[in-house]
From TrEMBL:
Domain Histidine kinase: 252-450
MF terms (GO), sorted A to Z: ATP binding; phosphorelay sensor kinase activity; protein dimerization activity
Entries under InterPro entries matching the protein: CHASE3 (IPR007891), HATPase_C_sf (IPR036890), HATPase_dom (IPR003594), His_kinase_dom (IPR005467), Sensor_HK_TwoCompSys (IPR050482), Sig_transdc_His_kin_sub3_dim/P (IPR011712)
Organism expressing this protein natively: Cupriavidus yeoncheonensis
Protein name per Swiss-Prot or TrEMBL: histidine kinase
Record keywords, A-Z: ATP-binding, Kinase, Membrane, Nucleotide-binding, Phosphoprotein, Transferase, Transmembrane, Transmembrane helix, Two-component regulatory system
Catalytic activity: ATP + protein L-histidine = ADP + protein N-phospho-L-histidine
The enzyme's E.C. designation: 2.7.13.3
GO cellular component: membrane
TM spans (from-to): 183-204
């Protein structure tokens, strides 16, 4: 009978292990694809930048050619002669980037022929122009130069569109891989829960089957209890680690957005400004279009800055926790039309980045909950400290938590659970006090230990704006 009762549990455990291994393999495969997608996106962005630069140099060369033909002055040929080596260098680098992409190399080869035709046309007109400007101008009026330039531009635009499509496809694939990783974590948690439930049910069944095995079953229960406590501690440690990893990833993403996307948007804006200056007199309609495009680029820069600020608050890193909390209260109070009150001493001790961002996220989550559910009109934040402890208190005068809310348990309340995990990671404790129509008070107490306080010689971390 006992052997038969153990058989389903053994099969379930084996199935759980197999599922766990399968999920881990799938997760690692997704991580590998994610790294490959990231490298491909960086490569495509670099190629796009080079293609845009090549287009710009062609425009520079053509401008120098036309300036010489119109004026006959050799000084107008400086942009032309400067652009030629740059064009050759860019074409060499682009061809090298397409070395592992036969289709892209073929498309660029066709575009290179059009660029070469344009360069030959400019060289021929300049050769005639140095002898007889009228002959060169007659050659220009044939529109052959315009046709070759249009062909070259179409080829470069097609290549840029192809790279943009590649970036979009890779980002979409990366999003799928991230989503699969999330599902994998959820599945692993479910497997652990199912296994624990199965073990508990088996324990209860063994108690009912034999009074003789009661003592052994009690010992097994104690062992399981110790295992659950250890697992709880491990999960708490894992939750703290995941929060730190999340913050580190946000910081990395903020820096990537600032360095990579910021540089691209700035370069685009500069190029558009240059082009607009060149065409605003001869093609006012095109200049207006370029002005609108520049406005869109400015909007993209603002969105990029807002994303960076959401990922990693620069005020917190540059000016400290006090300034960051003051700005946070001011922002949320302005958005929700609240009256606000802030009490933070000037002599607040300097904290480690991990502790400062944890307290900031706790305050941020508290105000987010208040804005969604409290219907408050006044909020108050205070941050005080003694020699051994830091106390953060957040209060609103809203309708309070539901009557069935258990202040001793945050199960089912993911925002409060995240706050509790952050406090636990700092070695502190959190207390929630609420009553109907009297608002909610959240009090966080954190000991000022070495893991919370910043060393005296630790430099302040700089964050990109």
């Amino acid at each position: 009978m006992f052997k038969q009762s153990f058989l389903p549990q053994t099969l379930l455990l084996a199935g759980g292990i197999l599922l766990t291994v399968a999920v881990l393999v799938a997760s690692e495969t997704g991580n590998i694809r994610l790294r490959e997608s990231y490298n491909d996106v960086i490569h495509s962005q670099r190629v796009q930048t080079q293609l845009a630069a090549l287009n710009g140099e062609l425009v520079n060369a053509e401008a120098g050619q036309r300036g010489f033909l119109l004026t006959g002055k050799d000084s107008y040929l400086d942009p032309y002669y400067q652009a030629l080596p740059r064009i050759n260098g860019l074409m060499t680098r682009i061809r090298a980037d397409y070395a592992s992409d036969p289709e892209g190399l073929k498309l660029f080869g066709e575009t290179s022929k059009q660029i070469s035709s344009k360069l030959n046309e400019m060289a021929l007109t300049l050769l005639y122009g140095k002898r007889d400007l009228s002959v060169a101008l007659d050659l220009v009026r044939t529109d052959y130069g315009k046709q070759t330039m249009d062909n070259a531009r179409r080829g470069l635009d097609a290549l840029q569109a192809r790279e943009a499509e590649t970036v979009a496809h890779r980002l979409e694939g990366a999003e799928r891989d991230v989503q699969l990783s999330r599902y994998g974590i959820g599945l692993l948690t479910a497997i652990n829960i199912v296994l624990l439930i199965a073990v508990g049910l088996g324990h209860a069944k063994r108690l009912a089957l034999s009074e003789v095995a009661r003592s052994q079953a009690e010992e097994e229960g104690l062992r399981l209890d110790r295992k659950v406590r250890a697992r709880t501690r491990q999960l708490s440690a894992l939750a703290g680690h995941l929060q730190r990893v999340t913050e580190d990833e946000k910081t990395r993403l903020a820096r990537e957005l600032h360095d990579e996307l910021g540089a691209i948007l700035t370069a685009i804006k500069l190029d558009l400004h240059w082009v607009r200056r060149r065409v605003q007199e001869s093609h006012p309609e095109a200049a207006d279009k370029l002005t609108r495009v520049m406005l869109h680029v400015d909007q993209g820069i603002q969105i990029k800055r807002r994303l960076i600020e959401d990922l990693r608050p620069t005020v917190l890193l540059n000016l400290g926790l006090r300034a960051a909390l003051c700005q946070l209260v001011e922002d949320v109070a302005g958005r929700n039309h609240w009256e606000s009150e802030v009490s933070i001493p000037d002599d607040l001790p300097r904290l480690r980045d991990e502790a400062a961002i944890a307290l900031y996220r706790i305050a941020q989550e508290s105000f987010t909950n208040a804005s969604k559910y409290s219907e408050a009109t006044h909020v108050r934040l205070s941050l005080g400290h003694t020699e051994t402890q830091l106390t953060l208190t957040i209060h609103d005068d809203g309708k309070g938590l539901p009557p069935d809310f258990d202040a001793g348990s945050t199960a089912g309340h993911h925002g409060l659970l995240g706050m509790e995990q952050r406090v636990a990671a700092l070695g502190g404790n959190m207390e929630i006090v609420s009553s109907p129509n009297a608002g909610v008070s959240i009090c966080v107490e954190v000991p000022l230990t070495a893991s919370v306080l910043a060393p005296a010689d630790e430099p302040a971390e700089a964050q990109p704006e």
